[in-house]
Specification:
The protein is of the alpha+beta class. 28% of the residues lie in helices and 41% in strands. The chain is built from 4 helices and 8 strands. Strands 1, 2, 3, 4, 5, 6, 7 and 8 form an 8-stranded antiparallel β-sheet that branches. A hairpin with a 5-residue loop joins strand 2 (27-32) and strand 3 (38-43). Helix 3 (106-120) crosses helix 4.
């Protein structure tokens, strides 16, 4: 169902893809938007337990699209170094395809929120994260993407 990568020599391993998703701080979610147009939106996320999670409001274009069609793609650019004298870039990126769903389980939701706090505010004490999470818990929506297919690609110069 999913296409294979055309330039297989540039494909990075599943382990490298997971590492990229683990360290990246932003990605772009693409959904089937209004009127059949793609809708791509940058967002912060956390990768854990082989899933991509993000938080958002409970309503809006993104949620309407996910509720209408749960198939999504998610792209992360890990490296993008321009090398002018070589007329190229040294890049590394990952794209994942999967199905998005709202996390309903309050225990999983809280665990994801803690992971997001740890990733984006590592210097903050857990008690501060708990206060923030408790204050917004009812209003925030957590979406998890179950990855069906994932590939990563890197510039030839970065391949081992």
């Amino acid at each position: 169902m999913f296409r294979g990568m055309r330039r297989k020599k540039q494909q990075i391993s599943d382990e490298e893809c997971a590492a990229v998703l683990g360290r990246a701080t932003s990605g772009v979610l693409a959904v089937h938007g209004d009127g059949g147009y793609p809708y791509a939106v940058p967002l912060s996320f956390v990768y854990m337990d082989d899933k991509i999670y993000f938080h958002c409001a409970k309503t809006g274009h993104k949620m309407d699209a996910i509720l209408a069609d749960d198939k999504v793609s998610f792209c992360v650019i890990d490296k993008d170094d321009i090398i002018p004298e070589e007329f190229t870039t040294y890049f590394r990126s990952v794209i994942a395809f999967g199905r998005a769903a709202v996390v309903e389980d309050p225990v999983e939701k809280r665990r994801v929120l803690h992971s997001l706090a740890e990733k984006y505010s590592p210097e903050m004490p857990v008690s501060a994260a708990d206060r923030e999470i408790d204050g917004s818990f009812a209003a925030v929506c957590i979406v998890g993407i179950t990855v069906d297919h994932m590939t990563g690609k890197a510039a030839r110069e970065l391949m081992g």
